[in-house]
């Protein structure tokens, strides 16, 4: 279920941080998807492998880097009280702006391929035929 929504409080369990406060760098209402977490983990593992021979490897804050990578693939929803969240409604965290109704996206992002994929997933509703409504009589 790549598009399953994961909230900030679930990330601590999903990512296994030693210190839950690492996630406090993300907004309380932060959300992402399983796919976003997986892509962040893959990028994080690749960067650790590339950096492994560096003398500063042990001193680097790897938890902080993982939170940053997850942050690029997550965000907030327009309405802070929204309980049901669809992936295509997530506003990328790196470029959100406050507005009178909550949050809105300013149209920019670093991980464009991820956000385009989420948007395309949401577009499927427009291609589905309408469901007929039957009346009893």
Question: What is Rg?
Answer: 18 Å
Number of strands: 6
| Approximate helicity band | 25-40%
Give the averaged pLDDT, no decimals.
78
Please describe what this structure looks like:
With 137 residues, the protein is an alpha+beta fold. The chain is 39% helix and 14% strand. The protein has one domain (5-122). It has 4 helices and 6 strands; from the N terminus they run βαβααββββα. The protein has a 4-stranded antiparallel beta sheet with strand order 1-2-3-4. A two-stranded antiparallel ribbon has the order 5-6. The chain is elongated, with a radius of gyration of 18 Å. The N and C termini lie far apart (40 Å).
Provide a quick synopsis of the model.
The chain has 137 residues and is an alpha+beta fold. The protein has helices at residues 8-15, 34-51, 62-72, 112-127; strands spanning 5-7, 31-33, 74-76, 91-92, 96-99, 102-105.
Topology:
Elements: E1 5-7, H1 8-15, E2 31-33, H2 34-51, H3 62-72, E3 74-76, E4 91-92, E5 96-99, E6 102-105, H4 112-127
Antiparallel strand pairs: 1-2, 2-3, 3-4, 5-6
């Amino acid at each position: 279920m790549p598009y399953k929504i994961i909230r900030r409080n679930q990330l601590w369990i999903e990512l296994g941080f030693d210190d839950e406060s690492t996630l406090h760098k993300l907004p309380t209402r932060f959300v992402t998807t399983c796919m976003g977490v997986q892509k962040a983990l893959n990028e994080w593992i690749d960067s650790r492998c590339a950096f492994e021979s560096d003398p500063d490897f042990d001193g680097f804050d790897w938890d902080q880097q993982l939170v940053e990578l997850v942050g690029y693939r997550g965000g907030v929803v327009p309405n802070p009280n929204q309980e049901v969240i669809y992936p295509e409604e997530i506003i990328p965290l790196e470029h959100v702006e406050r507005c009178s109704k909550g949050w809105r996206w300013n149209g920019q992002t670093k991980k464009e391929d991820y956000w385009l994929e989420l948007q395309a997933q949401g577009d499927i509703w427009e291609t589905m035929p309408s469901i007929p409504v039957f009346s009893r009589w």
